[in-house]
Amino acid sequence: MIGTGEILSARSWLFAPGDSERKMEKAAAGAADIAIFDLEDAVAEEGKPRARTMVSDFLRSRPEDARARLWVRINPLDGPHALADLAAVVPARPGGVMLPKARSRQDVEVLDHYLSALEVSAGVEQGTTKVIVLVTETAEGMFTTGTYKGAPRLAAMTWGAEDLADAVGASENRDADGSYGFTYELARSLCLLGASAAGVAAVDTIQGDFRDLKGLRDRAEKVRRDGFRGMLAIHPAQVDVINEAFTPTEEELAAAQEIVDLFAAHPGAGTIAHRGAMLDRPHLARARALLASGGRA
């Protein structure tokens, strides 16, 4: 349960347009840890009312225990659609809601009030619907990524580069070599640090080129080393790569267990020599975290 110190374990978060029953079906039936039915960017303005109904009907068609991994991205709170989105989907009991273009913790608190009222009205246990927040899609949001500690319902934080580029008036968000520019790497770091401060999972943003699976694997492995717990996906082909990259290998688990066993054998030691290096308590903490992520706590 979120809020008890346990971090949500979800490696892959796959978007599916909320106005396509075929794509929602494929996402729900696939290997993604979480499928996100999108009512925001993937749906044209005139199609939003129909998409709300489609997402609600789709959720209701699923067994209740299967809905925990079916989430919905609503529209931004400061726009005209968010309340209608929530009123349509909360009674259908999605596992969670993605809040885009969050400006600060205050947006999560407002969302919590809306969710609580709708849950009570629908006979849903209050607090059931979790939240993942997109924290860097606005210039304002960049300055508040450290404010989310203790925010109600918060399960994860992620970031975005495309809307941020629009917000600051940039013509491009990547350098000549294809890597993100400084501002966007800063956004990634602020998301990671904010999630760590809040005690929730940090989830890396999408890779737009869904055909470049090698590049996806390289990036997923890197951000996992950096501390991210999962990654957003825009195409089913990306899911298996992401799941594998965020799953510890047997070699990693064995090495982590060796460190834990060394410290267990020397309970009073602050540092231990091991394989030509000195290990201290942060090494032990990281080893324990890796074992927990592999189900071997």
Please explain how this structure is put together.
With 297 residues, this protein is α/β, with parallel strands linked by helices. It is 42% helix and 15% strand. It contains 11 helices and 10 strands. The strands form 2 sheets. Strands 1-2-3-4-5-6-7-8 form an 8-stranded parallel barrel, surrounded by 5 helices. A two-stranded antiparallel ribbon has the order 9-10. β4, α4 and β5 form a beta-alpha-beta unit. α2 (48-60) runs parallel beside α3 and α10 packs across α11 (281-293). The longest helix has 18 residues, at 105-122. The chain starts with 11 loop residues before the first strand and ends with a helix. Mean pLDDT is 91; it is low at 1-5. It holds the Pfam family HpcH_HpaI. Its cofactor is Mg(2+). This is CoA ester lyase.
A few lines on this structure:
The strands form two sheets. An eight-stranded parallel beta barrel has the order 1-2-3-4-5-6-7-8, surrounded by five helices. Strands 9-10 form a two-stranded antiparallel sheet.
Strand order of the largest sheet: 1-2-3-4-5-6-7-8
What share of the residues does DSSP label as strand, in percent? 15-25%
The secondary-structure element order is: EHEHEHEHEHEHHEHEHHEEH
Instruction: Identify the overall geometry.
Output: globular
Percent helix range? 40-55%
Protein name: CoA ester lyase
Keywords: Lyase, Magnesium, Metal-binding
Organism: Actinocorallia aurantiaca
Domain HpcH/HpaI aldolase/citrate lyase: 11-236
